[in-house]
Records
---
Amino acid sequence: MFSFPSFYLITTTLLLLFTTIPLNKSQPFSPRLLDSILQEHAFQPLSGHRTKTGVIYSGNVPSNLTGTSIAALRLRSGSLRRRGYSKYNEFSIPKGVVVSPYVKRVILVYHNLGNWSSVYYPLKGYVYLSNVVGLLAYNASDVYAKELQELDVRVSGYPFVVKFKDLKDDLPHGSLPKCVFFDLFGGVEFEKLVNGSVCVSVNQGHFGVVVEDGLSRLNSSDRNPSTLVLIAGLYLLMQVSK
Ligand SMILES: *[C@@H]1O[C@H](CO)[C@@H](O)[C@H](O)[C@H]1NC(C)=O
Ligand SMILES: *[C@@H]1O[C@H](CO)[C@@H](O)[C@H](O)[C@H]1NC(C)=O
Ligand SMILES: *[C@@H]1O[C@H](CO)[C@@H](O)[C@H](O)[C@H]1NC(C)=O
Ligand SMILES: *[C@@H]1O[C@H](CO)[C@@H](O)[C@H](O)[C@H]1NC(C)=O
Ligand SMILES: *[C@@H]1O[C@H](CO)[C@@H](O)[C@H](O)[C@H]1NC(C)=O
């Protein structure tokens, strides 16, 4: 049991921590709002009369997003599961992919954020060697639908493979490129880059190749001020519990 003063200290430390950790909520360029805008625009070519299943349709982005590109691919979910889809721009979709809740057909929306990559997916301390690309799965039943929720996507066995073209290769000396993966809930993960230009994933979301920014590597202490607060807090706690 903590005595009263240490309880007070813990609370203060926690409060301090939560107020210093930078939150992305105030970010003016919301990736989720972008997903929603791009979903609506990517679906548009599929509203024509003779659109086909299994064909990639490229879409038009709104003029304030010039520089990004989008596409849509409609598949029966049975075909997605049995066969996958081997070449959807950078993506290879493995067989064994299951979406839930069950829908008869899915639309897989592709994003290439081009020069907007670091605007919507800023990563402090890193520079992008690729554009950020994304793949998101939706219910295909209503091609006029807006603000659709993504379907849940699960692989069984093989992962999604993302093969980047034209990686920037003017790397700072000794730097190690990595894959970065952004899920739909604000999570960020770094993974190993395979074969020089390939990222693998068991999830839908957005992908890029990054390298640590040489300058911020030397300046790592100013990259994460909350670490200092954490250390100070722990130190205080140790003093109190002595
Ligand atoms: C772009 O324009 C659309 C309307 O077409 C608007 O909803 C959206 O907020 C704008 N996006 C940006 C980043 O200005
Ligand atoms: C990206 O490039 C287009 C022109 O191709 C430009 O209109 C747009 O403002 C640029 N976006 C950013 C974030 O620089
Ligand atoms: C898919 O969309 C159709 C048409 O909007 C709707 O009736 C159906 O419930 C949706 N399915 C799921 C699983 O959301
Ligand atoms: C990496 O390259 C090897 C040899 O070419 C190949 O067998 C393997 O499938 C590649 N891995 C990925 C994830 O592309
Ligand atoms: C470290 O950061 C300071 C200020 O943020 C900057 O002036 C300095 O150039 C940086 N040092 C290196 C080696 O990047």
---
Amino acid sequence: MAIKELTVVVVVVVFSWIACTSGHEFFSSTDKVAQLFEEEEDLLTSFGLYIDAEEKNVKRMKSILLVLQLLTYFDPANPEKTTRDPVAAYKLLRRVRREWLTIVEYTQLSLYKVYQTLLDYSNIPQAKDLNDAASELIRLQEFYKLYPHNITRETSLNADEAKHMGLVAYDEDKFQHAFLWFLYSLDRLTEHSTTTEKELLRFLSSSAYHFGSLPVAIYFGQRLLNLDPTNDEVKVELNLYRYLRFERNSNPDIFTLDTKSNTSYEALCRGEVDERTSKRQRALSCRYSTGGGNPRLMYAPVKEEVEWDEPRIIRYHDIISDREMEILKNISRPQLSRSETKQGVTNIRTSQSVFLKEDNTVARVSQNIADVTGLSVESAELLHVQNYGIGGRYEPHFDAWDGENDRIATFLIYMSDVEIGGATVFPQVGVALKPKKGSGVFWYNLHKNGRLDWDTQHAGCPVLVGNKWVANKWFREFGQEFRRPCSLSDWE
Ligand SMILES: *[C@@H]1O[C@H](CO)[C@@H](O)[C@H](O)[C@H]1NC(C)=O
Ligand SMILES: *[C@@H]1O[C@H](CO)[C@@H](O)[C@H](O)[C@H]1NC(C)=O
Ligand SMILES: *[C@@H]1O[C@H](CO)[C@@H](O)[C@H](O)[C@H]1NC(C)=O
């Protein structure tokens, strides 16, 4: 145990301490993106209403002009007469004054002001939101080893969009991904693109140089020089690249992504579970549970599946109804804010979340959890609902922190299926749990002796396709004294 602990202690214990932040944060919640659809519809509708109002005003002004012209036609003012007839002069004065007032009134009728408040949406994505979303896509590509053509199979990007992806990658010194995006952009250039070939060749050459692929840098630099023979800067760069190429032997392949998994976490998320592990998983049992004779479960037993033996991870199927899930999501939506860790908002955890106050539905869900686990929810934390956005994930962490009144156990409810990605993985033991809507998984974070079980380190894999909703119930040690028998042994 001691040796094992030493090796794992170096892993940073990221305890999920959650607080609230404001901001748009589109990329950290898929649900916020869904709301943007309605926002967009409203925006265009308002713009249409504004145009209609302006059009009506233009029509009105045209008819007023006609009336004014008619009046001068039927009641013409004779220059000679008005200079000697004071009544005629008075009439003219009055008429011009009234014309002026009418014109001022209608030209100053500022419909824009009326509609500007309608057009003033606070939820419109900012430039930062756009860069963050691009940045998340690139992180997904890195994680799941995806080329631009892999992730654009369903939705392609045009040359300008692809260049933006390249620029964001370039800014983050991710030169291989930058290069691949610039190449994708070059492939899709049309006469409508604002991106130019020269610009892309320059970035292709520069990305390849930074990545260390000098022959590729020289190739694109030369293409640029052919297009722009008087560009002295490019000439200087090409000379440098040629010199460096002569000096260096290494020539990494910028066209091919390295597909080796760095960590067990990444491998598990990518579905590279080894055969031994999955055999062991298949051998584990599935049965119906009545929560040790809990009267509430006697007539409606819960389907229970042992997902892993050590640490014991149990999945309960249909622990929550579709209607309950919909209500929980409805209550949560307006309250979601970016999830934090003990270190604040970091890229370790990209999701939006909220702790729900107890109401009928929340209490019913909590009671269900108490019934099947046999633990007391009285001392547990409030139900915590989480929605994961583009690339949303939670890197390997522990729910407990090996301290006073620790999080003894975790009950994690999946409130959606996730098409690709989003599994819950336990890198120390090689388990990957797929989200299954309506099911919940349960495990103890602490051994019976109260010490942290290092094998419960787990992670939420990045969501590649789908909208991931989960609800967490964290049980605390206090209040469970008579529910979970404790042990003085070092081994349990
Ligand atoms: C991405 O594309 C490469 C090469 O075309 C292919 O080998 C790989 O399987 C694709 N990956 C995924 C996840 O589709
Ligand atoms: C994976 O390993 C490579 C080198 O071995 C490193 O450059 C890269 O940053 C690692 N990726 C992650 C996500 O840790
Ligand atoms: C959830 O909200 C949606 C949209 O506002 C509404 O149509 C639906 O009836 C709500 N569902 C429940 C169960 O309250």
